[in-house]
Design a protein that fits this description.
Layout (H helix, E strand, L loop, with lengths): L7 H11 L27 H5 L24 H14 L7 H11 L1 E2 L2 E6 L6 E3 L10 E5 L21 E5 H7 L3 E2 L4 E2 L7 E2 L3 E3 L5 H14 L10 E2 L10 E2 L2 H10 L4 H14 L5 H4 L3 H5 L1
Parallel strand pairs: 6-9, 10-11
Antiparallel strand pairs: 1-2, 2-3, 4-5, 7-8, 8-9
Helix pairs in contact: 6-7
Amino acid sequence: MDNTRVTRRARIALALAGGTVLTAVVAQIPASATAGQAAPHRAAGASERSSLSVGTADDTSYDDTYYKDAEGKTGKELKDALHRIISSTQTGKLTYDQVWDALKETDQDPDNSENVILLYTGRSQSKNANGGNPDDWNREHVWAKSHGDFGTDTGPGTDLHHLRPEDVSVNSIRGNKDFDNGGTKVDEAPGNSTDDDSFEPRDAVKGDVARMILYMAVRYDSGDGFPDLEPNDNVDNGSQPHIGRLSVLKKWSEQDQPDAFEKHRNQVIFDKYQHNRNPFIDHPEWVDKIW
């Protein structure tokens, strides 16, 4: 079958029916920087990210298919419906080793196909500069894996919807802290702040962080052997399966709406890897309808 001739709704129906692996159609964008070299920090990140438009979905393109069982619901009914949708359609599950290569595609720099964009720094860095050295990038669990102690086994520990590339030393600074406003500026990651028990990301990804956290709370509810992950309005949650502050995350989601980079990322995960979606990227208004 020629996939270029299949309508979007037909492709979704095929995916739901058979769990077929669909290949994302991604534009080949000429490299704008020398391969293997990191580009300067992108403190704002908005202009570069907004230039990406290929492979994204509009806000309502899945309403009659993927989200049909969630339409018209609010509160717990909406949360339960979304849980059933995103857990039942997650037919692709990765090992922790496989996450490396997946992130090289999901977080590819739209201006340089040899690089990925790091979440907190906004830096464009070579895909091959990953590992454990201070200036390498590694796999950041936005929902810190110690909050619920789920580790890196296949499941929440390898779910691409909350795993992002990040500078090793900045990832260490974030650690397993909850999210909140305020703190001391992070010198290596302009626009980010931190204190003893919380981390504030740069403005351009505040909404991304919030929607990743809320996705995890809907996807993992203890029904599949993993902890029941729930946001709360606290910080310093430790090993409890909670992350806060919910009130701040809700504001961040409202202030920083999904952009082209985030939508494209959601689409690649759906088409090629996990075959489920982050509903709060497609429908950010559902945040207030649940919490």
